[in-house]
Every structure is written in structure tokens, then in C-alpha cells.
Amino acid sequence: MPRPTVAQLTYGSCTVILSTLAMLLLSQTSSGSLIAVVVITALALGVLVAMTLPVPRRQVTVTVARSTMAEPVPASVSAAPEPVREPSTR
Asked: Which of 30, 50, 52, 56 sits CB 3.0–4.6 Å from 12 for a disulfide?
């Protein structure tokens, strides 16, 4: 399983915190069992948000196999060889 990205962790955490606060403020509950239900619901919502974020694609490198026949490679740019110039010994 791939590791979660920074964006997934951030969005999931913010979703858990904000949805917990919103549900607790809107429900105005004070019983322990209803608070546990709100927290579990917020946690499930945060996991859902983190998992539905698009994951960045990895770049795939394609290698091209060389042919088995050896092709001649030119040794230099010019086709005609240059004459060798030697210094005179006079």
C-alpha cells in the first residue's frame, strides 16, 4: 500500500477536526456515547476525504532496446580524413 501524501494527511486531519467541532456545536450534546459517535463519524469522514484525493502519478520511463545488428558509427563529422602536418626539422 502506498504511503499517504502530505496533501492527503492535511486534508484528512482538517476534515476530522472541523467536522468534529461542527457536529459537536450543532448537536449540543453532552453525553459520552453521543460524543463518541460524533468522533467516530468525523474520523470516518476524514479517512474518506483523504482516500478520495487524487494521487500524483509517477513518471514512467520507457527504455528502447537497441537492435541486435551493429550499425557503423562515424568516427568524425567530416567524411574525408585530414592530412597530417608535421613540423619541419630545419
From this structure: 50
